[in-house]
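Bench notes, afternoon.
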Amino acid sequence: MRGVEHRGLAAAEGPIVVAERRESVGYGELVAVYGRDGARRLGRVVEVGDKAMAIQLFSDNAGLSLDEARVECLGKPLELRVGEGLLGRVFDGLGRPADGYPEILSSEKRDVNGRPLNPSARIYPRDFIQTGVSAIDGMNTLIRGQKLPIFSGNGLPHNRLAAQIVRQAKILRKAAGADGREAAGLDGGVPQAGAQDGAGAGGAGDAGSEPFAVVFAGMGIKHDVARFFIDSFERSGVLSRVVCFLSLADAPSIERLVTPRSALTAAEYLAYELGMHVLVVMTDMTNYCEALREVSAARGEVPSRKGYPGYLYSDLASLYERAGRIEGSPGSITQIPILSMPNDDISHPIPDLTGYITEGQIVLERELFQKGVYPPVAGLPSLSRLMKDGIGEGMTREDHRDLASQLFASYARVRSVRNLAAIIGEEELSPLDKKYLRFGERFEAEFLAQGEFEDRSVAQTLDLGWRLLSRLPREELLRLPPELIAKYLPAEEAAARRACADGGGSGTRAGPAGPGGGGED
């Protein structure tokens, strides 16, 4: 009962303390624990037995005495105060102000665990989001309402890529022609000023369009990573539309378990109550899972793969499934979780289970990064399961689906030829295999690689893909219908011939679309 304190703890081990069970206490209920110093430590009930209850503290247990500690059951779950005042604020993992300002002026509170959502109320995501990154727009498209994680590794530029997506994301206009050259912002209110100087923002678009917001959740990240994202939002002109929840590396690890739930609660309020289009960036999900493993070990639970709890899948699903769109609300939640794969192992339980829940993944490859390719998006392991429903005539361009399929097939042949060349030597390859090797080099240097502030339209991306395929014999383009080859390939072949004549075969800036080159990196 709230206001009634009970003295004494039965046990304390790490973040878990055990107290005598109180009447009508429930799972997930918020609890306050006081030590001899009078400091108030918040926690939640994680297990209820016949005579005892286990409490997970959101801080360490230093200063707690088993005999003198006092426990108060607050009779409610952990809640976040919500309102329009969330925008432009910085909070800690528990939703407490961390920017020196007081609590927002609002009487509304939401349970951080979210509300049950009727699956039949979900709207299938179909709106193509143009990120300006060819490796994503051309072959692994992002759809509004989708959850598309970034699988990365230590030292790889996942933060830069996420910031670039936030800065450049746009929704194509409904009135766009079949060539896909007209685009509007992600229904924001800040007009794009130009890509080369980094103006505009993720969710930024034509003035007067639908409102947008960015929710950023940092779990166990260093101060310089948090500072990088905040500075990026400020340069983009959207800092006033960003809500930050930061549980930094020096904060209690248990706080990381609440951070994404607080962030998603804020996102749900902004999307479903205020009708905003919300982009949620969560980093690093690996730190979240490590905290979950720490709590599981402290509770003495039977471990599963690599020591993680057996409920890791369902716990991650409770976060990822809070993305999407629902009937009766114009808003949407699009998730970009970032996780660093231990030892670059994509079969590790964290990326493995995440891939089962989410609708694809963007995989960053260390080999490409060592070649100087930015962004080092792996061509073959990356995929977007919703891509087929957000591209094509009337959405991007009629040739998008077939062109992406051909690029995948051709690049897969490149990887096979490289493996063969490593065994028998490049000089023993057939003339066709050597053409595939040159195609692979140009594909990585021109299609995958681009500048950090280079914003390519989907039309430029598709034209660049055609130009690269024009280097291969036509009989190798088995996944492209003849009518599309007749419509798009001749112009690219002529451009390729001009490039060979003008630049000795390099052709890095040839073609009507004008993209290409390795970018600023």
